[in-house]
Structure formats: structure tokens, C-alpha cells
Fold this sequence. Notes:
Chain A is an alpha+beta fold. Chain A is built from 16 helices and 19 strands. In chain A, helix 8 runs antiparallel to helix 13, helix 9 packs across helix 12 and helix 13 packs antiparallel against helix 14. The two termini of chain A are 30 Å apart. The interface between A and B is large, with 94 and 95 residues.
Amino acid sequence: xxxxxxxxxxxxxxxxxxxxxxxxxxxxxxxxxxxxxxxxxxxxxxxxxxxxxxxxxxxxxxxxxxxxxxxxxxxxxxxxxxxxxxxxxxxxxxxxxxxxxxxxxxxxxxxxxxxxxxxxxxxxxxxxxxxxxxxxxxxxxxxxxxxxxxxxxxxxxxxxxxxxxxxxxxxxxxxxxxxxxxxxxxxxxxxxxxxxxxxxxxxxxxxxxxxxxxxxxxxxxxxxxxxxxxxxxxxxxxxxxxxxxxxxxxxxxxxxxxxxxxxxxxxxxxxxxxxxxxxxxxxxxxxxxxxxxxxxxxxxxxxxxxxxxxxxxxxxxxxxxxxxxxxxxxxxxxxxxxxxxxxxxxxxxxxxxxxxxxxxxxxxxxxxxxxxxxxxxxxxxxxxxxxxxxxxxxxxxxxxxxxxxxxxxxxxxxxxxxxxxxxxxxxxxxxxxxxxxxxxxxxxxxxxxxxxxxxxxxxxx
Amino acid sequence: xxxxxxxxxxxxxxxxxxxxxxxxxxxxxxxxxxxxxxxxxxxxxxxxxxxxxxxxxxxxxxxxxxxxxxxxxxxxxxxxxxxxxxxxxxxxxxxxxxxxxxxxxxxxxxxxxxxxxxxxxxxxxxxxxxxxxxxxxxxxxxxxxxxxxxxxxxxxxxxxxxxxxxxxxxxxxxxxxxxxxxxxxxxxxxxxxxxxxxxxxxxxxxxxxxxxxxxxxxxxxxxxxxxxxxxxxxxxxxxxxxxxxxxxxxxxxxxxxxxxxxxxxxxxxxxxxxxxxxxxxxxxxxxxxxxxxxxxxxxxxxxxxxxxxxxxxxxxxxxxxxxxxxxxxxxxxxxxxxxxxxxxxxxxxxxxxxxxxxxxxxxxxxxxxxxxxxxxxxxxxxxxxxxxxxxxxxxxxxxxxxxxxxxxxxxxxxxxxxxxxxxxxxxxxxxxxxxxxxxxxxxxxxxxxxxxxxxxxxxxx
Lengths: 461, 461
């Protein structure tokens, strides 16, 4: 990939020796990275933004996190908490320099209590790895982000992530019971409750969910899990337009069809995936990927057949026996597009499902009027689309204007500027558009937990 | 019921004429109540607490709510938002006098968009009424509080209510997409998003959910709904002890059984319900009420049969064909106990399900050592128990000590002081015990939205 570096880029400012000395009093020196080649992997995420931190600290205990934050607070050093760095918004890029706290070494599953359908993990546990453990016991942790093979639970909680099964299982917020959070001043808070539900006071837990590392650092996460389905039925439904696909999806929702996946992909996305994976998608204008899940093969199958009958706009309906390959291919949408084009600008708007057809029409209009190619795919059942602008060296500015227009249209349709990726630096300029007067209260909230503004500065609000 | 009035009771302080004049400029005079007999119905909730407000205002528009709050803010008049007044914590009792804002006239379903499985209601819509409308379209709004026949959606959101179907559907928090909130200064905020999920900034919406009217007043609530199950299978499982019942429930959870209801009731609760309703429960030490739901009769039935096989401690297993009567009887637990005894003190602790058996043992020990009768029932699948202390004129102080001991034990077991009823005035003294350092941040949060402290003063924190 040929990166276009823009907007955010600071020079590498090495720390004064005294800073390193101070940190090395609280964390083993081998886990303090300060050499440029070691720092580069921590300078980026899945966007084009690149900034090199002054140091990377890799704690292995809660106590180390506490002590690191105390020093950072005292010295007013910017702190960027980091999981796998899969963010699509620049959220894990250290745009103001300072330190990156790499949380991937805090990666143990602390306990699992299946009688309570609850478990505790450290933030660095990888999503797919957790599910491998759970599968052994017949349980499942929703809802499968595209980056599930590598992304961490901490990062998912920090962005209120969802994924391809969100239409049935919803976002991660619904599954987080409790968090241990280290505030920038080093204070340790326990928010939420290990019990399955609580009405005890203000929902601080929910304030930290989706806070993108701007309020504190998670050191323990308690999650609710659900029984793992045993059967799946999967189909590819082809359409001659994205609008048709979205209209049929709206009908499926209205008819109460119990889908566990409802993904939409346009022709450009399909072609690109076909180029870079072994899976050959049909050459059509739009595809809905539908799946039902459950514990009775007959029922799962019956529900899917019911769904397919409702798809009155479909031009072709095809049952798939290769669901695992299919979902792997679907998750390859973003990486395939990234290989295909010098660079990308991925959006993440969400609207009520009844408005999706209007939104895809707007996307096509924007693509035509700004003369920029857009590949659109997303978790349509949750109303989320990822219109991805294909960039070359020349059209980034145009793409930015086109994306702004798209966001404006999504908000007009009652939507949000980010369905699942979060704000980071990419969406920050649009916060006022979506939230209006509420933004002022978000800023006050930030100030409660991080009064000196060291936590992931330049992100969210 | 013979009320024991205690702890909170202020004299009726009529407003100065000028206050009434000022309110009558923004709300029709017929909807301002100031005569003592009219005020009495707004002086209480389902607890023993009684305090008479100076006036009750009954707005019918958002604009009226805004203008009322502006006046209250200017004059520093305490404001208590009120739905159906079914609170079990004193949350809707005007303990500092001032005005009660009765929101039951704001009771329209504004729109329903089934393509997006989303709808908008005013706060005064009654839970069961909403579900009647939804049933016509094949949808359902979870999760059935005991007071569902009368309680309002606004009150449910204000307490993060759950109910008998929480074990499958979770608390109301998971279903609230967006809120229109009027802050005490009259500012109108839109928090959350009409799209099914969003990762846009800090979760202000979730701060308002469960805030018990202490931060602002909801004037519109957007909710997610789910397809309505078509089949149910129901059973009564008898045990010779509450501990046995809770141990078997923990096994059901561990085995991944997909229950839609898992309620537990002890012998005293069962006897009392049998006295005041037409339903005769078996005369046993403990009963688990189990239900499965779904869309295939065979599967729903199969899952319940699987559940019953796992109940190895059961002394009797009985399938029920009269589920509606059964759930009506279950919901009559609290009202029956209220008829049976001069007064009640109802607790609402929740613990991880694996700890329920230990908790019921502690309850029995507390009952014995404090020499006070306790009737225990609750949404065991969610880990929620409502140990209810039976009061007479003499034992309130003992009951308070016993309840404090119970709360202490629940917290030691990793639990919460309130699973679903909220804090109100009843649980306020225990907030520090559960939340420790977090309580300070909750107070700062309150101060952001209600700096002059007029919103439901004396509640939550």
C-alpha cells in the first residue's frame, strides 16, 4: 500500500533521558521501547495516519499501568492506550506524541463462570482466541468484528464494536458487565457490576464503553456470554441494484425474520474480494448475505427459506454450504480493497434500516457528482454501511469533501456518523453536526475523568 | 395497608400565590394541582414514604416541560418527575417538597418503524399498552416488569428496569436507542441515535438511563423491538429448599439452556400468593418457574424438557398449560405480600447466578438471627432476588438492620444493591458500600447536568 500521509504527522521527539529513567522505576526496562525501529509499529493503525510516539510501554500488571499513568499525569505526557491497532479512525495513532501503552501483554482470561454465563478478561485478549475457548464449553461471545482474528477485547470495548452478527446480537455494550479502569491520576475504579444486571447509580461503565482510551485504561473486563448456536443456514441473494437489496432487507426486518447475519456488498466490493481471495462471488450489482442460526436444523433452515421468499426483488438466490469460507471472504472486504487501491477512506455511517435504500442512492449520487469510486459494504441488518472511497495520490481532498457530504446525508436520514468504528481523529470534525448541544456535555464528561487532558489527546471530542 | 411513616416526611408547604401565577403562564391552570386532596395521590410510591408536594404539574407538550423547568430552575424549586409511581425505592416521592411533574399525559406512541424495528414513545406510555400495539404487528418489547399493567416506559428507562424475561432479553438499557431529554435549565438534548447502534462519542444516553429523574426529564424515547415469540413451554419445578432450586438453576445456565423465564419463589411467597389470587401453588419450600419461548413448538418443548432433566434436585416437576394465569400470579407476589402484612421492606439485590445458593442461605440466616420473617422471590435467571421483610409496627428498625446485613452479604458475593428497582431514597446509604471511589465521579456527573441540584433531590447520590 502506498500511504498518503496527511493532516496528522509529527516528528519523532525522543524522550529526555530522565523520563525514561522515571518510567524504568515502575516497569522493567526491556518493556520500554525507545528506539525508532521499535516505535514504528506503534505509529499507525488501519488509516493513513502515522505519528511516532516518544516511547512504547508494555505493562504486564495492573500495578504497572497505575504507576505509568501517575508519572504521565505528573509530567503531562500524552498517553495512547493501544490494543491490536486495527482502528479505522486513527484512534490508536499518537497524534500528540508521548507514550503508547501497549496492552497486548495483558492478555489472560482471568476466570470463566459458566453458571453465571460471565467471564473476566484482561484487555489484550484477542476476540477469536476468546471464542475458541468459549466454543469448548458451548458458549459464544458476540458479535464478530471483521478484524476478529487479531483485534483485542479492550479495543472492542473502547469503540463499542459490533460486527457481522450485530443484527441478532447487538453491540459489545450489551455484553459488558463491569470494567476495572485506571484513571489518568492512577486511581483504580470498578464500574458496573458482576451481576447480570444492575440499576445502581449512574452508568459510569457505559461512559467508558466507546470512550476510545480518552478517559482511562481498562485492566479487567467482565463479559456476559451466550449459548453457542449449533446450526446455521446461509444464502447469497443477488440483486440488480443496492437499492433493491436494501428494500428487501427492510421487508425482512418488518416481517420479523430472525436473521443472525444480514450483510450487503456492492459490485466493486465483490469484484475486489474475488480478486484477492479464493472465493468467487457472483458478478452482480449487489449481494445480500443472509444467515440464520439456532439449535434445530429444521427451524434454522425454515427461517432462511421464509426469508428468501420475502426477497421479492432478488434476481438470484443461492444457498451456501461453505459458510466459513464465505464469512472469511466477507471479512476480507476491507483488506482486499486496501490491496486494490493506493489508499482508502472508509466511512462507517449507520441509519435506520428503513432509510438504507435512500442512503445507498445518495452514495451513488455522491460517487457520480464527485467523480470518485466508492465500494460499499456493511452490516446492513444493523443499518451500518462502510462506503469506502478509493484514493490515489490526487483525490484525497475530493474524497474528504465527498465523505463530508455523505455524513451530512446520513445525519439527515436520522443516522449516526459512526455505527461501530468510533470517532478517533477521522470523525472528530463531524461530532458537532451529529450531537449539537450534547457535545458540550461530552466535553465536561471528559474533563471529569481526565482534567489535564493527557488521555489519547486529539480524539473523540 | 397500615403505613409506617418514617425517615422522610415533610409537612405540606403550599406555594406562594406568585409561584402558581408564574407556572400558569406556561401550562394551563386546569393542569396545575394545588389542593391538598388532589396532591395526596402524588405524595407516595410503592414504599412507605409519603411527602406532599406543593404542586403537581401535568404537561401535555414538550414545550410545557421546558418552560416549567426554566421556572423551577430560576426559583430553585425541587422537581420530581413521575410516571405511574410504582417505584419500590421512594424514587418518585417528593422528599424535599417542590413540584411533581406528572408525565402520564405525555402518553402517545409517536411512530413505529418496523422496517427498522424501532419506535418512538412519549414517557407516559404504559408498558402493557405498548405491547398490545406491538403484538398486532408480531413484535415485542422486553422484558415484562411485575408492574407492567400500569408502569410507564419513562419510569422503566429512568430505573433501567428489567423483569421476568430478563434472563433472555436483558434490561431495558439494551433496547433504548435514543432519548430526548429536557435538562433542568430547559435545554433540549437528543442523546443516542435512531440507528440501531452507534459508536459516536460518550454514551450520554446511557447516563440518563437509570438516572431516576435526577438529571433531566425524558420527553421522547426511541426503542428497539424484537420479533414476538409464537410458542411457549412452561413448567413448575418444586424443591425442598431454596438452595437446591438455586443450584439447579446454576446448572441450567451452565448447560446453556435457553430459558426465557427463570423465577424463584420461596414457601412464604407461594403461600401468600395462594391466599390472594385464584392460583394455588404447590406447598413446597421453593419453586422454580421455567419457560422457554420460540417459533417452533417442538423446539420450545424440547428445550424445556432438556431443562427439566437437568433439575436433579427437583422433588416434583409439573408442566403448566395455564401460563398466563401463572405469570399473573407471579406478578402478584409483591401486591399479595403487601396485603398480607401491615408493611414491607423489599430488597432488590443481585449476584452472579453461581452465588445465588449462597445468597439464599445468608437470607435464611439473617431471617433467623434477626427474628424477622422474609419472603424471597425474584428473577433468579438474572441473579436478582427480592427478599421482602414483613413489617409490623415494631420491627422496622430490626428490618433495616437485617436489610443492611443482607446488602453487605450481597456485595461480598460480588453483587449489586439493586438489580432493577434503582436507588431512590431506600438504597442511597449503601451507594458508597457498592461503588467506593466511583461515587465521587457519579456526584460530579450529577453536577454537570443539574448544577443547582433541583432534579429529584435526595435520590441516587
